[in-house]
Every structure is written in structure tokens, then in C-alpha cells.
């Protein structure tokens, strides 16, 4: 057992959890996120909570970061600047995209793949919908003469002159990174490797992303999109991670820096630098992974992760302790061919800004006050009303100092909310105090919280009802800085009877990082019939993929992490002949035959579509995954630290009663029996709001179990 530190960078706060398995010590910390230099917030959390001797003993520093996602978002939004990298369709001169300037080298005839897309519409009911502009403008997309067939045969040799011409163009345009996507290169990468060599010989020194290293799957649009995203993220991720590693080692850290993947698990530093597109959603996935482990420990069949942070609400459905894993994700309308935990996010967090739209309706989000300047009640320059301001006004958050050294001002919250009362035709003078509250502000604050709750509930329905799962039979696992505050509200919105608040709820995503394992994956398209001759071919290809993963691990780690007993998993993308889309099912090499694989697919097909088909099957993709458990003996749910047992009273709004109530304020460590709502339960990193009609009890494993007593 080892000492592990997990740090999750969110939009508003950076969360840290230290777990010393030898002593059982748990340390948690929250620091304000520093968007312009995220590593500063990480290091501030380390300096605030981790003694030098603990950092020196730390074996693994596991990091969940939004740096890659932010780099991608910056590249999809315009800003005022010079003439370089003009945005297609924008006539105003001097408007460019933020982030890295990327060039694309592709096979002649495929220059416009990023614009043609799939020819579908993201919203079929929006008559004015237009696709987002491609990440690479047309003048930076260069065709070269070459062609490789789908079977790997060379149809046309690569023309070096075209690559040299592309290098001259990229130098003139100030290109930062290059994506190379040649058709069918996943079968034979020779031409892509030659393009990279020619670019280097021509003097290009920036990052180069080669599609055959990024994805071993067909579909030219998806593979091109994934490679371009990798080039954009690579420009930012590498320097960030190396800088963070250097600063940690200057503080005495001697272990490994790991980065979590969008598909669960973690990568080593060098692997994350080499495959940064796999880290796009590394932050939200950590909370889902922690929920999966918690639900398995508690024996909960269906759990809903409800992570409410300062900027967004993230949710995922966990069934039988398993994460909902997909093999193609999408960010800002861009497909990514990568393992992907199905986490849905909406702009409904503590910093989400409330406003009145032109039609006179109250709206909440998705725009957020973020970490800078933050909600008005933080007294850091924010003036617009947010969800946090509404919660503070209604007593859902006690006034005073919170984690991260932030002082809350109820007066500033009320002043920010008050301007919304006029446009909403709300007035009155009854409130918490004569100086800070009015009936209109009370109604505005209640409306803000209810609207935010409705947004969250709709996102939950997207991962449950849309999959044929009834959320009423699930348990909500509420975490994040504001998750426990919304637990009872979400339960009412979704008609759920059980809410679970895990230990260290405000830092639960960082707990998921502490529990992460090393996971690597690779895939290769293999379109052929599933027959008696297919399984030996599939097993040989899977062995090739496992050898590739081992080679990558040896080349990127000073001390290889692959153990002899590392878990190996093989999955197949299968479909009925003549269909377009696939279902992914597990394969047991050496044990399965065609009949057992077919039966497993038929059962999955029936669960998904409600019927079975007699048509023969074909294989589309073979997937290989290795998992190295870093510490099998690590407790899945660390116990909360003991604290003050004193109780007090506060004035608290009950949403069920729609009235103010005198309610107890109880430290979490003091909950030793059934606690009736309305009440507040305090812990260092979060506050749990218990509404009337709910009862909370402490679970022996450290969780707070909230159950509904009666329905409204």
C-alpha cells in the first residue's frame, strides 16, 4: 500500500485528496482554480495541504485536468487579434480563433472532409442550424499525392514535393502544430511516417500528430477530427504537464505523475503527452469512476452520479458497478475516436449566472462566473447573480468562510439578486433581514435554485430514461462542492427515494483519482464476417495490439508498470450484415466460439432495440485493453475525519413547505442517529441540505444516507 495524491482541476475550484494507506491519513483541500495558469492552483493546493515528508513518500500523483478541453474550447471560439487564422464565414477583419494554429496534410481529394462532415444536422428541428466552422481553415488544409488501399496496398506513391510545399505554407502562416491524416494509413502507416520526416527535414519543429498513432479505426471524418483535436491539445498539454512535473519535483516529489483518461483509468506523464486527446474529459470521469466503486462497495445496482461543481453539473449512470463506456465521444460537436465514459454535462453549477431573458422569463446558465471573478457573494469583483448567491440567500450555505479561504457575504448576494425581482414582477419586504432580504429576492432565489435543479434533472433523464432505465429505482450519489446541497431537490425532481452523500463529498472526484488504475487501450478496424475462421484472426490481431501496448509502455516509462498479472480485455464491435452501426461486446479469447459470441450479441441487441434479427454478423473493430491495479488493498471509501460535534440553529428555506424554518446545523461527524429535515449538515468541503420530508443517517462506511419519508 502506498501514499497517493489526487488533484482534480475544476472550473471554479481545484480539489486535492491525499490518502496514506499505511497510516490511514486523509487530507483534503480546496483552492480557487487559476484559469490562466492551472498548475498554479494545483501547486497552491499541494502547498496548503501536503507536508513535504508526505509529498516525498507519495508514489503516485494522479491528476484530472481540463487543460486539454480548455485548449479545444479556445480553438472553437473567435477573439479579436491579427489577420492570422481567419475564421471562415466571419467577414470582420482581425477576428481569429484562440489556441493553437493547426495545419492539416491529407490525401488528394480529402481536403474538405472536416467541412463535409456526415451531412447530418445536430438539431433536425432548428431551421437556422449551421455546422460549426472546421478547426482547420481551408487554406491550411493541404492535399498531397498518395494513396493506400483499404487492404494496405500502395496505389500511388507519396509525392515529396507536395509535403515540402505544405511545409513552406505552414511556416508562412505561423502554424503551431500539424495533423497528418492519410487515407487508410491505419493499415499501412509508411506514407504518414514519411510525411513527418519530410516536414522535419523542411524545418518544422512543432508537434506533429499522425492519424495511425491516434486511431486504428476507419471512418475518415472521425479519424481526421480526432487527429486535429490531438494536434490542438498537444500544443498545450505537453508544456503544462512537464511544467507541473518539474514544480512538483522541486518540492520533493519522487513518484509518478499520472493523468486520468476520458475512458477511465490513468496514463503516465509521457503517455498523456503522446496521446493528449485521451485526457479531454479526465476531470468529470474521475467522479463517475468513484461513484462506480462506491456503488459496488455498497451493493447498489443502479446509481446516478450527480457532480455539481462551480461551473457545470456532470452526471453518469452506473449499473452493477460498471462505468458506461463508449468508444466514440463528442466535444463541441466534434467526434473523437477514443474510449469515453458517457458523462453528460450541462452549464448548471454554483457559478451559473441567472438573468431575465427578453421574454421576461428567469434563466440560469450556461454562462458561469467561474473562478474569476466568481459569484457576487465571494466579494471578488463579481456582480451578476449566481446559483451560489441564491443558495446563500436561502440559507442553504451558511454565511462565513468556506474552503479555499473565501468569505461569503449574504448582503452582496441579496444585492445581486434584487435587480431580477423588478423584471419578474416580484415585490415585498419580508425576508431574512430588513437590509438584505425582500419577498421579491426570496422568490428570485427560490426560482434560481429550482431552475438549476430542473436543468440537472433533465441531464439525468438523458442518461437514464433515454436508455430505458427508470431513475426512480436508482440512488443518487451527490458530490462536488454543491452536489449535496442539491441532493434532495434532485430526488424530488426525479422521484428518487435515496440520496447518498459520500465521505469528503466536495472532493469526491479527487477520491476517484486516488483510486485510479493504469489503463491502456488500442483498436484496429477489421471488417469481415464472423465465422469459424474469424476468431483465430481476431485473436492474432488482439495479440498484436497487446504487444503494441506493451511496447508503448516500455518506451514511455522509466520503470514499466505492466505486471505479469495485468488484466487483459478484448472487445468486439459487431453488427448485422448490411447495417451501419455497431454494438460492443466482450470476447473471451480461447473460451468463446462463434455461437457464444453470437448469443451475447443477440442479447445485447435485444436489450438495446427490443427485438432480435436472424441476419449473419460481421466484425468491424477489435479492441484491446490492459489494466494494471496500482493498489488492490486500498480502501474504496476513506473514512471522514472527526470534527466538532457542536450544533446550532439557522434560518433555512424549505422548498417543500415554501417557507422559512428554524433548522439545526450539524457537523457531519455528529450525525449519530436519524436527522430529520429541514437541516444543514456541514463538512470541510461541502454542505448537505436536508429538506422537510427527508431523513439522514450515517452509514458505517462513512456515507450519509438520505431517504425520503413521504412524497409531496
Automatic annotation (TrEMBL):
Residues 223-520 form the Hydantoinase A/oxoprolinase domain. Residues 5-202 form the Hydantoinase/oxoprolinase N-terminal domain. It comes from the Bacteria. Coiled coil: none annotated. InterPro entries: ATPase_NBD, Hydant_A_N, Hydantoinase_A, Oxoprolinase-like. This is Hydantoinase/oxoprolinase family protein.
Amino acid at each position: 500500500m502506498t501514499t497517493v495524491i489526487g488533484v482534480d482541476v475544476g472550473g471554479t475550484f481545484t480539489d486535492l485528496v491525499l490518502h496514506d494507506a499505511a497510516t490511514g491519513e486523509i487530507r483534503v483541500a480546496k483552492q480557487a482554480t487559476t484559469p490562466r495558469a492551472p498548475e498554479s492552483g494545483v501547486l497552491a493546493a499541494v502547498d496548503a495541504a501536503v507536508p513535504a515528508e508526505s509529498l516525498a513518500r507519495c508514489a503516485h500523483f494522479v491528476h484530472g485536468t481540463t487543460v486539454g478541453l480548455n485548449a479545444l474550447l479556445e480553438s472553437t471560439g473567435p477573439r479579436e487579434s491579427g489577420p492570422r487564422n481567419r475564421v471562415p464565414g466571419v467577414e470582420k477583419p482581425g477576428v481569429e480563433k484562440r489556441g493553437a494554429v493547426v495545419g492539416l496534410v491529407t490525401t488528394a481529394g480529402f481536403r474538405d472532409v472536416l467541412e463535409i462532415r456526415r451531412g447530418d444536422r445536430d438539431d433536425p428541428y432548428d431551421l437556422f442550424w449551421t455546422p460549426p466552422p472546421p478547426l482547420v481553415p481551408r487554406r491550411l488544409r493541404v492535399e498531397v499525392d498518395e494513396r493506400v488501399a483499404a487492404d494496405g496496398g500502395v496505389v500511388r506513391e507519396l509525392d515529396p514535393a507536395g509535403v515540402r510545399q505544405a511545409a513552406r505554407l505552414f511556416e508562412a502562416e505561423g502554424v503551431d502544430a500539424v495533423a497528418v491524416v492519410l487515407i487508410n494509413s491505419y493499415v499501412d502507416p509508411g506514407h504518414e511516417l514519411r510525411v513527418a520526416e519530410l516536414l522535419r527535414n523542411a524545418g518544422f519543429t512543432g508537434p506533429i500528430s499522425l492519424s495511425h498513432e491516434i486511431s486504428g479505426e476507419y471512418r475518415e471524418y472521425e479519424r481526421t477530427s480526432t487527429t486535429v483535436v490531438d494536434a490542438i491539445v498537444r500544443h498545450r498539454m505537453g508544456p503544462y504537464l512537464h511544467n507541473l512535473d518539474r514544480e512538483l519535483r522541486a518540492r520533493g516529489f519522487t513518484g509518478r505523475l499520472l493523468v486520468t483518461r476520458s475512458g477511465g483509468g490513468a496514463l503516465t506523464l509521457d503517455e498523456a503527452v503522446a496521446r493528449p486527446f485521451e485526457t479531454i474529459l479526465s476531470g468529470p470521469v474521475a467522479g463517475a469512476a468513484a461513484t462506480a466503486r462506491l456503488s459496488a462497495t455498497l451493493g447498489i445496482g443502479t446509481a446516478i452520479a450527480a457532480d455539481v461543481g462551480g461551473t457545470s453539473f456532470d452526471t453518469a449512470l452506473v449499473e452493477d458497478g460498471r462505468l458506461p463506456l463508449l468508444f466514440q465521444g463528442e466535444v463541441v460537436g466534434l467526434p473523437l475516436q477514443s474510449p469515453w465514459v458517457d458523462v453528460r454535462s450541462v452549464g448548471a453549477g454554483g457559478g451559473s449566472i441567472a438573468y431575465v431573458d427578453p421574454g421576461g422569463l428567469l434563466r440560469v446558465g450556461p454562462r458561469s462566473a467561474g473562478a474569476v471573478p466568481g459569484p457576487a457573494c465571494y466579494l471578488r469583483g463579481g456582480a451578476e447573480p449566481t446559483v451560489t448567491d441564491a443558495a446563500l440567500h436561502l440559507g442553504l450555505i451558511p454565511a462565513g468562510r468556506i474552503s479555499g479561504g473565501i468569505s461569503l457575504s449574504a448582503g452582496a448576494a441579496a444585492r445581486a439578486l434584487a435587480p431580477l425581482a423588478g423584471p419578474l414582477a416580484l415585490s415585498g419586504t419580508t425576508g431574512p433581514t430588513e437590509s438584505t432580504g425582500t419577498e421579491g429576492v426570496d422568490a428570485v432565489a427560490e426560482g434560481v435554485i429550482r431552475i438549476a435543479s430542473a436543468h440537472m434533472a433533465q441531464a439525468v433523464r438523458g442518461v437514464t430514461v433515454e436508455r430505458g432505465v427508470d431513475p426512480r429505482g436508482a440512488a443518487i450519489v451527490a458530490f462536488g462542492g454543491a452536489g449535496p446541497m442539491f441532493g434532495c431537490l434532485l430526488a424530488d425532481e426525479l422521484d428518487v427515494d435515496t440520496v447518498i452523500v459520500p465521505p469528503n463529498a466536495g472532493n469526491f472526484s479527487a477520491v476517484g483519482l486516488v483510486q485510479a488504475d493504469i489503463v491502456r487501450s488500442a483498436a484496429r478496424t477489421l471488417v469481415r464476417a464472423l465465422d469459424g475462421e474469424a476468431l483465430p484472426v481476431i485473436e492474432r490481431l488482439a495479440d498484436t495490439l497487446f504487444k503494441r501496448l506493451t511496447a508503448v509502455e516500455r518506451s514511455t516509462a522509466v520503470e514499466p508498470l505492466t505486471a505479469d498479472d495485468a488484466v487483459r480485455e478484448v472487445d468486439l464491435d459487431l453488427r448485422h450484415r448490411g447495417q451501419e452501426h455497431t454494438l460492443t461486446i466482450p470476447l473471451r479469447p480461447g473460451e468463446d466460439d462463434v455461437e457464444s459470441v453470437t448469443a451475447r450479441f443477440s442479447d445485447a441487441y435485444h436489450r438495446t432495440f427490443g427485438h432480435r434479427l436472424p441476419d449473419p454478423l460481421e466484425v468491424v473493430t477489435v479492441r484491446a485493453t490492459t489494466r494494471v491495479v496500482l493498489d488492490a488493498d486500498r480502501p474504496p471509501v476513506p473514512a471522514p475525519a472527526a470534527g466538532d460535534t457542536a450544533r446550532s440553529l439557522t434560518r433555512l428555506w424549505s422548498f417543500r413547505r415554501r417557507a422559512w424554518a428554524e433548522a439545526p446545523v450539524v457537523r457531519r461527524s455528529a450525525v449519530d442517529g436519524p436527522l430529520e429535515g429541514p437541516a444543514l449538515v456541514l463538512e470541510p468541503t461541502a454542505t448537505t441540505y436536508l429538506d422537510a420530508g427527508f431523513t439522514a443517517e450515517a452509514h458505517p462506511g462513512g456515507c450519509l444516507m438520505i431517504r425520503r419519508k413521504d412524497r409531496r
